């Protein structure tokens, strides 16, 4: 369909999971994509898959908590692809888990920086490039955690993900007149490598419990979240801005 034909995009957290699926889908829909994460080998493999499928992509490995890296991503989009139209600030991590009184300030700050400060740094450099382009679409991965539900041990993560929604609302009203839309996508439980890493030490039946929290009684595939992201960054959602869009399989409303 080429929903993103001739668009230039940045996707963070692209080495696996939702970010990887989104980068491949955006490229398949015509976008030229700058992908980033910390793992160079995984990014190189992703670029190879995109190019083999006829798309265009470039990998820039780095840490989204680093302001110089946030600027480098935008500079790369401008220099290699002529500008920036789309940014999917997806990178994040659950961080250290535990009751709030037991969290160290270092653990708190690391989780906030990984999930929320990285979103701020991304927007700081993405917005001016989009203004120069005449508009654009900013998308951020938040979570139903901290928005419609609370879970024990997720204080820092929930605070960071809730903060993303506040940032999105402010960006939407600050730059709407410049043709820039800003939205957050709030996935439910998603079958990603990072979630797999959290399951081996969990009690038996944890996965089934997580699936059962959802009205659909399963976790999402990364590609399902990516399709929702595609809608929000494309002109198909041209009158949606400042929204926190649940793509959560009904986990927010399920009581069964």
Tags for this model:
seven-stranded parallel beta sheet, single chain, 7 strands, Rossmann fold, alpha/beta, 256 residues, globular
What does this structure look like?
With 256 residues, the chain is of the alpha/beta class. The protein has one domain: 3-Layer(aba) Sandwich (Rossmann fold). The protein is built from eight helices and seven strands, in the order βαβαβαβαβαβαααβ. The chain has a seven-stranded parallel beta sheet, with helices on both faces. The radius of gyration is 17 Å and the shape is globular. The relative contact order is 0.14. The model has no long low-confidence stretch (mean pLDDT 95).
Main sheet makeup: 7 strands, parallel
What is the radius of gyration?
Answer: 17 Å
| Portion in strands | 5-15%
Which class of secondary structure composition applies to the elements?
Answer: alpha/beta
Strand order of the largest sheet: 3-2-1-4-5-6-7
Question: CATH superfamily membership, which one?
Answer: NAD(P)-binding Rossmann-like Domain
**Under the CATH scheme, which class?**
Alpha Beta
- Could you say what the CATH topology is called? Rossmann fold
